[in-house]
Specification:
Blueprint lengths: L1 E8 L13 H10 L4 E11 H6 L8 H6 L5 E10 L2 E9 L3 E8 L9 E8 L5 E8 L4 H18 L6 E6 L7 H9 L2 E2 H6 L16 E6 L1 E9 L4 H4 L4 E8 L12
Parallel strand pairs: 1-2, 7-8
Antiparallel strand pairs: 1-12, 2-4, 3-4, 5-6, 6-7, 8-10, 9-10, 11-12
Length: 258
């Protein structure tokens, strides 16, 4: 079974420097990528002031507006809450989401972060675990958040079930890959396919390697960075996509298929 995975920090539906509201253009371009599962960060669940300010501000939350008629299911993890509304991470899926849970991993009150975990039902009874993440700006907090991510995988994701972890890691020193590989068995799609992590920020001419797609239980056949026009008008981050193919179920120590 083949899947196309996309991860994108959508900057709350605004262009770089918040110059223009771009959520309608975002929806059109996102659909053209043909993704099966989309991992989104900085998704506006509600913003009352923006709804009054922009005549074409969607009535539905951004994750519902983006998913409409293309991705049959969606989940939202509310992280930052303020007077006018809230934002967080979201997962959009062409396949049914069987369960969803958001874990608070905030380092402090001024920078709210979470791990949104979904279990997606695939054909033939297979289950796919998806975790959408947006890590902190400071290295010490990120280190603790990576520890929380690894602990969650160990507790809640069976070793014989496939897993995708994607999002904005803010890991410009490239410290997360070795730890996630050694402690969780994760493979980063771009490092595996192209030999290096993807440059994803800023979207006009990416320099920093902030966004990632990690997998377990998949073969990776393609990995692409979508930057420049039209993406550079939509958000300050580039879009990452990866084509992955589900491997046969692992076999446990008793020789039985997982």
């Amino acid at each position: 079974m083949k899947l196309r995975i996309v991860t994108y920090n959508i900057h709350k539906g605004f262009s770089q420097f918040n110059r223009r509201m771009m959520v309608h253009e975002l929806r059109d371009e996102l659909r053209d990528l043909g993704a099966d599962i989309v991992f989104l960060q900085e998704v506006q669940g509600q913003h009352q002031r923006n709804a009054r300010r922009f005549h074409n501000w969607p009535e539905a939350p951004q994750y519902e507006f983006l998913a409409d008629s293309v991705w049959q299911d969606h989940a939202y993890g509310r992280n930052a809450v303020y007077d006018n509304g809230h934002h967080g991470n979201a997962i959009l899926s062409r396949y049914p989401i069987l369960s969803a849970e958001n874990q608070d991993i905030s380092g402090h009150a001024m920078e709210r972060r979470g791990i949104l975990q979904c279990v997606v039902g695939l054909p033939q009874g297979r289950r796919l675990h998806c975790m959408c993440i947006h890590l902190a700006l400071t290295e010490g907090v990120r280190r603790r958040q990576i520890g929380a991510l690894i602990d969650r995988m160990r507790r809640l994701v069976p070793a014989d079930e496939p897993l995708v972890v994607a999002g904005d890691f803010n890991d410009w020193r490239n410290l997360a890959c070795k730890r996630l590989a050694a402690d969780a068995g994760l493979v980063e799609a771009f490092r595996h396919h192209a030999g290096h992590l993807a440059r994803s920020y800023p979207s006009t001419m990416p320099v920093l390697r902030l966004d990632r797609i990690y997998t377990r239980g998949f073969a990776i056949s393609a990995a692409r960075v979508h930057h420049g026009l039209p993406w550079s008008k939509i958000s300050d981050h580039a879009v990452l996509s990866a084509d992955i193919e589900l491997l046969p179920a692992h076999r446990g120590a008793d020789g039985q298929a997982g």
